[in-house]
Design a protein that fits this description.
With about 475 residues, the chain is of the alpha/beta class. The chain is about 45% helix and about 20% strand. The chain has 17 helices and 16 strands. The protein binds aspartic acid and magnesium ion. Aspartic acid binds next to α10.
Length: about 475
């Protein structure tokens, strides 16, 4: 049984929904061919229509600021967009029912928003109630659209399927409870030969209070559902061909990485290759369920497969990720010499100002770290200067070269660093796991460095990505 997750752009409009239907139908047919009569699934997980979550959060912000008119205008817009799409993707038989559902949800939302605008306060709990609407609507619409095209879909209210903690806006799944809920609400339609359609991102506490799993949470939902029901594969359908060997905005000829280990995918994601956040597929990886990233515009492209381990490849490096607009903060103190507790004190400052640190290097007297959020840097520098000399450099970039080959070939790191040519390298970091080398250069040098590296290690791919 396969779980298929479709992101916001894959449900954005009529054309996108029609593509989704064709893709689900093909999967259904392939399963039937393989399994004979009793094929199960797939289970379809959908995001909100593209940009809708942002709009809903904007409406919540309107309400929090007491801007009733702004909230209402935005709500009218959203209602209109959902209705317009429903009218074209749903057949006459179901149309009235779906429109009624939309109206009911939007009426409810309007009442909530009005009340919150009076109070001028939006608690995380209400934020979740508002944000969750996007997926509740899109899933209902997609289920009806599938049925309109002759596929036996069953809409599942995500609040009955995924059980979470009460940590609003970033709720964590409760796996045993979710498994029971899925057995109660998703397994019966599956067993009856139907295709369950469930909104991603959304869940509810054991008391039935609506929660969300955090931004980008639909991938997480797919992995949770797949893990709890023991899926054979989880497919993440998006609008790119998969994970690329480098950023196509910077490198001329990147191509799709066919197979990544989970650890490689994680390293890449931290520094910019934002196709999916690796933490979101953790439940799948923990159960050894393969995750495939696929392009709904080019359903026959091979995509990227992510598994716990991957078979060895002839290429020593897997991909290069990069991140612009970072700052390097260097902290120098002779007090660090042979002292303990210095690092704790130093990082406590970053923690106090809630600023995440990406790359860290240390020498005997200097610690350098990179940050990408500069908002609290002045306060951080002031606090650090109480016990050290502090210096910050902006307009820097991180390059993260990933490949299991770094483990087996000790000479490779030297070749990588030489590969950037005459570009000055500021920091270099390699963890003991030796799956990546990360270094920091000036942002202005990034295009040159990346193209040099890519040309050297990723030349001569027979089939280019052909980006959609
Ligand atoms: N709609 C949610 C968001 O925009 C969840 C998702 O699309 O994965 O974050
Ligand atoms: Mg996403």
């Amino acid at each position: 049984m396969v779980v298929m997750k479709f992101g916001g752009t894959s449900v954005a409009d009529q054309t996108a929904v029609e593509r989704l239907i064709a893709i689900v139908r093909a999967q259904r047919q392939a399963d039937a061919q393989q399994e004979g009569g009793d094929a199960r699934g797939p289970i379809v997980v959908v995001s909100a229509l593209s940009k809708v979550t942002d709009r809903l959060l904007g409406i919540a912000a309107n309400a929090g600021a007491g801007d009733i008119e702004g909230a209402q205008t935005n709500l009218r817009d959203l209602r209109q967009r959902h209705k317009a799409i429903s009218k074209v993707i749903v057949d006459a038989v179901q149309r009235e029912q779906v429109i009624q559902f939309l109206d009911q949800e939007f009426d409810g939302l309007e009442r909530i928003v009005q009340a919150l605008a009076v109070l001028r306060e939006v608690s995380p709990r209400w934020l979740d109630a508002i944000a969750a609407t996007g997926e509740l609507l899109s899933s209902r619409m997609v289920a009806a659209a599938l049925r309109a095209h002759g596929l036996l879909a069953a809409w599942i209210d995500a609040r009955r399927a995924v059980v979470t903690t009460g940590d609003h806006t970033a709720a964590a799944p409760l796996f045993p409870e979710t498994t029971s809920a899925l057995m109660a609400h998703v397994d019966p339609p599956l067993a009856a030969g139907r295709i369950p359609v469930v909104g991603g991102f959304v869940g509810a506490t054991t008391d039935g209070v609506t929660t969300t799993l955090g931004r980008g949470g639909s991938d997480y939902s797919a992995a949770i559902v797949g893990a709890c029901l023991g899926a054979g594969e989880i497919q993440i359908w998006t609008d790119v061909d998969g994970m690329l060997t480098a950023d196509p905005r910077i490198v001329n000829d990147p191509f799709v990485v066919p197979h990544l280990s989970f650890a490689e995918a994680s390293e890449l994601a931290y520094f910019g290759a934002k196709v999916l956040h690796p933490a979101t597929i953790q439940p799948a990886v923990a159960r050894s369920i393969p995750v495939r990233i696929l392009n709904s515009h080019r359903p026959h492209a091979r995509g990227t497969l992510i598994t716990g381990e991957r078979p060895p490849s002839s290429r020593p490096l897997t991909a290069i990720a990069s991140k612009k607009e970072v700052s390097v903060v260097s902290i120098t103190s002779t007090r660090m010499l042979m002292a303990h507790g210095f690092l704790r004190r130093l990082f406590e400052v970053f923690e106090r100002w809630k600023t995440a640190v990406d790359v860290i290097t240390t020498s005997e007297v200097t610690v350098s770290v990179t940050i990408d959020d500069r908002r609290r840097l002045p306060a951080i520098m002031e606090a650090l200067s109480e016990f050290a000399e502090v210096d910050a450099e902006h307009d820097m970039a991180i390059v993260c070269v990933v490949g299991e080959g770094l483990q087996s070939d000790p000479g490779l790191i030297g070749q990588v660093l030489q590969g950037v040519g005459d570009v000055p390298i500021q920091l270099v970091s390699q963890a003991a796991s030796r799956r990546n080398v990360t270094f920091v250069i000036r942002e202005a040098d990034l295009p040159h460095a990346l193209n040099q590296l890519h040309g050297q290690f990723f030349a001569a791919e027979p089939a280019p990505a052909g980006l959609a």
